[in-house]
Design brief:
By secondary structure, the protein is mostly helical. It has one domain (about 5-260). Helices cover about 75% and strands about 0% of the residues. It is built from 12 helices and no strands. The protein has helices spanning about 5-25, 30-45, 45-70, 80-85, 90-95, 100-125, 130-155, 160-165, 180-185, 195-210, 215-235, 240-285. The chain starts with 6 loop residues before the first helix and ends with a helix.
Length: about 290
């Protein structure tokens, strides 16, 4: 049996997984939270603008692929990466190779990774009245892409399996996603390795989940991040250096995002306090 036979299957699995994760992370009806999201998009201009900005930055990744296709890039730093870390990915893949593990990690890499981001947006919209964590997610993902895209354009690094013939690309096995290259590859360039977006975003979502105070969601995000990071090696996709760059970028992005979000919240609170003080002053003066 094939796990993913088309992008339609990916979409169905994603929708189901997002619904379950929202229910688990928010401990509430996911459809109610979906309604709240739509309400915020209509009534909260600031919320809507942040979400649109997030979608635009994700679109930039596709734009980067289009720009890259017009560039005459003939160099590839995969050989340099291999000279540093050797056969790390091959040895890990050989040590753990198992049909059922391949299926599970393929699901984590394709479905759970993107579901974590969508569910985080929904959960933080529901659990935080000031939307501070929602804004932090938006800022963090935007920072990650803004930093990563120049590397993808000017520091091309082919995926491990594409450079090293001894490493298998396990994603395209018959029981996982045999049409991955023709149907999913358009979302991610084969030489867009450093830094690893799967690592950076997973680490970011884990840190933000811990900072949110939602213990059950923090536990799930941290566990999922560890599994997803393992999957990028096991499936034969990323180099160890890619992961290190992704971890560093994830920590940096989440730290800056929390500061931006908190500073914005503090500024609004100061403005409200100043406004109340002015009102009280006017009342006292009137007396």
């Amino acid at each position: 049996m094939t796990l993913f036979d088309s992008m339609r299957t990916v979409s169905i699995y994603s929708a189901i997984t997002v619904t379950l994760l929202i229910w688990y992370g928010a401990a509430s009806n996911p459809f109610r939270i979906g309604g709240l999201f739509l309400k915020e998009m209509v009534l909260n201009r600031k919320y809507m603008l942040h979400f649109v900005a997030l979608m635009l930055i994700l679109f930039c990744n596709k734009l980067e692929l289009q720009i890259e296709s017009t560039m005459t890039v003939t160099y590839d730093y995969a050989a340099f990466f291999h000279s540093i870390e050797g056969n790390f990915v091959k040895n890990l893949q050989d040590a753990f190779h198992n049909k059922y593990l391949t299926t599970f990690l393929g699901f984590m890499y394709v479905i759970v990774f993107q579901a974590l981001l969508i569910a985080s947006i929904a959960i933080y919209t529901f659990q935080s009245k000031d939307r501070r964590m929602f804004y932090a997610v938006c800022y963090a993902v935007m920072i990650i892409y803004l930093v990563a895209i120049p590397f993808y354009l000017f520091l091309p690094v082919n995926e491990v399996w594409a450079y090293d013939p001894t490493v298998q690309f396990l994603m395209v096995t018959d029981h996982v996603f045999p049409n991955f290259e023709s149907q999913y590859r358009a979302l991610s360039g084969i030489d867009n390795c450093f830094p690893s977006l799967h690592t950076a975003i997973s680490v970011t979502l884990s840190i933000l989940a811990v900072r949110s105070g939602n213990k059950r969601w923090a536990w799930f995000c941290c566990t999922s991040a560890a599994i997803i990071i393992f999957s990028i090696f096991y499936l034969g996709i990323h180099w160890l250096i890619d992961m290190c760059g992704g971890v560093l970028l994830g920590v940096l992005a989440s730290t800056i995002a929390m500061r931006l979000s908190s500073a914005q919240f503090s500024l609004r609170r100061s403005q409200r306090t100043l406004k109340r003080s002015n009102i009280n002053y006017v009342r006292e003066d009137a007396k």
